[in-house]
Design goal:
heterodimer, A: globular, B: mainly alpha
Chain lengths: 540, 318
């Protein structure tokens, strides 16, 4: 800046830059993007140790008005998501909801029936239900919600059209038999929000108007969500007046806040890490609970690239993985070794014969038949965000150690999320890991996303698995009306996938949650919703 | 003097322009296609290519880097519009405004406390060179600075919130909520600032004119406060103001541990989500803070030593 002429030149350049026209409106772009905004995926679990209890004594106990729940992720999404707020908060409710066996049950829907060939499904809604803004839940509103979800979140693959019959009845017409339609409409896939929820474009803090036992009061950016009891709730009213969800991103502080009494419970997926279980158990004021969740952690190969384009080598790697050791050493036993391709909770669909085994001798023999005496180097790429939530680093090290005997030297690379996505998309990996959560008990979505050539994970992560027989079997299974035949198709699919090993399960997740001993009736249900409608706390 | 300050402000604006340009280019070099990320945000099925292309066009990602930057800069300067978050769809300014107060308060209070702790200690260590008190202060300072701030924070929470139940561990609703995060940061930073102050005092104390002042029989207190401290304030104020800049730019670790919604946490979350408009907005804010601090440092120099006017004036016009 010593020369005035240089200063003038710079100023002139800046001026020129600013004075030239600029065509696209960012505001318009953002509004358009808002219209396209999708919604989140949800996990589903089955409760195991439900902490249902009652306070002892004859006198009527005094209840606290407020319960504070600590969570490790933000559950209010505003305009960026279709449903604005997570289903765990009981603000909105779905038409269908899975029971403990993951079978769809009526929630806001009263009943449903189909025609003989399962191409037309008639749904009847419960009557007299209103949203928090006072507007009624009608068939028209339900159809609007389902169409929004179909277009922006989970497309119903065989949807033809929907028709409103009367105030509380509508029909979903499908292009082919879809026996799993009720499974495809559970929980998030049939979230009901009032039309007023969508009419808040440009509002700084849009309010989700649902039909649930709690209504949204306030969201403080990245800190807390405040809910209040819906006094006009159509079902049994909740015992607690106010629930506050407190966002505490750090797992250590989250538990310390529970120990110090600042929060009453930690109840969300992955909010207590397995290594903290001993701390909770040793605290006499806290109770620790577990719940089997529908999440399974998978190891997947780049099937299109040497060396794992070789099926025998993929099988050798799978055989060399001691899944029990991984569960015991990395998640302190809070997991189920991945001996079935899909979660063991989807019991009626699991093929017990299709089970990845641990046999190091066989693994060595298989690797030897492919590699001979040659040693190869492969890259195991980990997503740092996932590795922070789950012990992927330790798991990768166990696998790295096991593969040394097979002549495979593993280089572990832990990269940040964006880089991980890019590396996988660009074929710059040999092995990687990620979790997957089934959205219902039906295996349709898993098979579609992972095993079909155009499935999102198969294509996005360059797994590049493509098998004609699998494609035919999935198509048959999706539209098969007879349950036993459908099960037989899925048995065959699982057997083939275990044999060909394009990906392999490592372990099925068990999630921990905890509460103070003054909190009662807090459970996480089959789809991981805490029981906010029944939970209560004794006044301290 | 006013002329020099005006010149500094113009120079600061120019730096800000350069920072914004560099930040813009750097942010766009990050791996991951932003259009794909926005389109696939939490979708279960991969977004169709036409949707990705539409988003690419609507956000202007399909244009050249210079064109994108020009549009962004135009909006910032003429409309005060930093764009919209790709993650939350809220205006960038609103996102920053909701995170900034917590970080500013935390930074300013921590800075004040750090000064209160480290100034007398650094001065004392400097004037009692190599005596037991000096060695003790130096040892404490190094220990404070060596202990990682996250460890200090977790230990403080464990002791004061979990064990004694005296103070809250999370949030910033009341004054009590500030105690632990401010203490963790101040104790950590005061180690460094104490050392800086001590070193500056020592350097000046060893100058011949100070030795001469002592030999002349001037009172110790006068030598320290008038002849030593004043010139030492130049390096000290520079170091401290840069530290202030760091503090008000947010502390990701402290904000995460104490569950504060601050600017540091917002930046890291935005980087993870490739929320380019927010990242740019925060980098611009941070750049602005340091440009302001640069001006403050120069102004302070002018105030402390008016002969600087001549030096600065010469430096800029020769």
């Amino acid at each position: 800046m010593k020369h005035p002429r240089f200063q003038i030149l710079i100023l002139a350049l800046i001026g020129l830059l600013l004075l030239t026209g600029c065509s696209t409106s960012v505001e318009e772009s953002t509004q358009a993007a808002v219209a396209e905004s999708p919604v989140v995926e949800e996990t589903a679990v089955e409760p195991t140790n439900a902490p249902i209890d009652e306070p002892a004594g004859n006198s009527e106990p005094s209840y606290a008005e407020e319960i504070i729940i600590g969570i490790g992720r933000n559950l209010y999404y505003g305009q960026s998501q279709w449903h604005m707020i997570h289903g765990s908060l009981h603000v909105w409710e779905p038409l269908l909801y899975p029971d403990e066996n993951l079978n769809p049950q009526p929630y806001l829907a009263e009943s449903w029936e189909s025609n003989e060939d399962l191409t037309a499904w008639t749904f009847k809604l419960k009557k007299g239900i209103s949203f928090h803004d006072g507007s009624p839940l009608t068939a028209e509103v339900a159809v609007d919600n389902l169409m929004e979800i179909h277009e922006n979140y989970t497309p119903l693959p065989t949807l033809d059209h929907m028709e409103v019959v009367d105030e509380s009845t509508f029909i979903i017409y499908l292009t082919e038999s879809t026996p799993a339609l009720p499974d495809l409409l559970v929980y998030f896939q049939s979230a009901m929000l009032s039309p007023g929820t969508r009419d808040q474009e440009g509002t700084d803090q849009p309010v989700p108007y649902g039909t649930g036992p709690f209504q949204f009061v306030e969201y403080v950016d990245g800190e807390r969500i405040v809910l209040e009891r819906n006094e006009n709730y159509w079902g049994e009213p909740p015992k607690v007046e106010r629930i506050i969800y407190r966002y505490i991103p750090d797992a250590i502080t989250r538990l310390q806040a529970l120990q110090s009494g600042e929060i009453d419970a930690i109840a969300d997926v992955g909010s207590i890490i397995p290594s903290q279980s001993e701390i909770v158990e040793s605290d006499e004021n806290l109770n620790l609970f577990t719940v089997d969740v529908l999440t399974t952690h998978y190891l997947f190969f780049n099937n299109d690239k040497t060396p794992f384009d070789n099926q025998i080598l993929r099988q050798a790697v799978s055989l060399a993985i001691d899944r029990e050791l991984i569960v015991n050493e990395t998640v302190y036993g809070y997991g189920v070794p991945g001996t079935s391709l899909i979660t063991q909770l989807a019991e009626k669909w699991v093929n017990p014969a299709a089970s990845p085994a641990y046999d190091l001798a066989e693994a060595k023999a298989l690797a030897q038949s492919v590699l001979g005496d040659e040693r190869i180097q492969v890259t195991f790429v980990l997503h740092s965000g996932l590795a922070n939530r789950w012990p992927y680093g330790e798991i990768a090290q166990i696998i790295q150690f096991a593969l040394v005997d097979l002549g495979i030297d593993v280089e572990i690379q832990t990269v940040e999320g964006g880089t991980w996505n890019e590396m996988l998309a660009n074929d710059e990996y040999d092995i990687s890991m990620r979790p997957y959560t089934m959205s219902s008990g039906d295996p349709d979505d898993f098979m579609t996303y992972w095993a079909r050539p155009e499935g999102i994970f198969n294509s996005k992560y360059s797994i590049s698995y493509d098998d004609d027989q699998i494609e035919v079997l999935i198509n048959q299974a999706v539209s098969e009306v007879d349950l036993a035949t459908r099960k037989a198709y899925y048995d065959d699919i699982q057997a083939i996938l275990i044999e060909q090993t394009p990906f392999t399960p490592i372990y099925h997740e068990v999630t921990l949650y905890a509460a103070k001993d003054t909190v009662f009736n807090l459970t996480l249900d089959a789809v991981f919703r805490p029981s906010l409608n029944t939970v209560y706390k004794l006044a301290e | 003097m006013l002329q020099i300050i005006i010149r500094k402000v113009i120079l600061g604006l120019f730096y800000l322009f350069v920072i914004s340009m560099v930040a813009f280019v750097m942010v766009r070099q990050m791996p991951g296609d932003p259009a794909v990320l926005i389109a696939n945000q939490d979708r279960k099925t991969e977004a169709p290519p036409e949707l990705v292309e539409r988003i690419r066009h609507e956000y202007g990602f399909d244009r050249g880097m210079v064109e994108q930057y020009r549009c962004w800069l135009q909006r910032v300067i003429f409309d005060g519009d930093l764009g919209y978050s790709t993650r939350t769809k809220r205006p960038v300014l609103a996102e920053i405004q909701s995170s900034l107060p917590a970080s500013l308060r935390l930074g300013l209070i921590t800075f004040g406390l750090t000064l209160i702790i480290s100034f007398p200690l650094g001065l004392l260590a400097g004037v009692t060179n190599n005596k037991i008190l000096d060695l003790w202060i130096q040892s404490m300072a190094w220990i404070n600075y060596s202990v990682p701030v996250f460890l200090l924070a977790v230990l403080l929470i464990w002791f004061f919130a979990v064990d004694l139940r005296l103070l809250p561990a999370i949030g910033h609703e009341t004054g009590r909520h500030y105690v632990l995060p401010v203490a963790a940061l101040s104790v950590h930073l005061s180690g460094w600032t104490t050392q800086v102050i001590r070193t500056s005092i020592r350097e000046i104390s060893e100058k011949p004119y100070i030795q001469f002042a002592h030999a002349k029989g001037l009172k110790q207190i006068r030598v320290i406060l008038i002849h030593t401290l004043k010139p030492a304030l130049f390096p000290i104020s520079t170091a401290l103001l840069i530290q202030l800049g760091n503090l008000v730019s947010g502390s990701f670790i402290i904000e995460t541990i104490f569950a504060w919604n601050g600017i540091g946490r917002l930046l890291v979350d935005s980087i993870m989500a490739r929320d380019f408009p927010i990242i740019q907005g925060i980098l611009l804010y941070t750049g602005g803070i340091f440009a302001l601090i640069n001006i403050l440092i120069d102004s302070l120099y002018l105030f402390l030593d008016p002969t600087t006017v001549e030096k600065m004036g010469r430096g800029r016009t020769s």
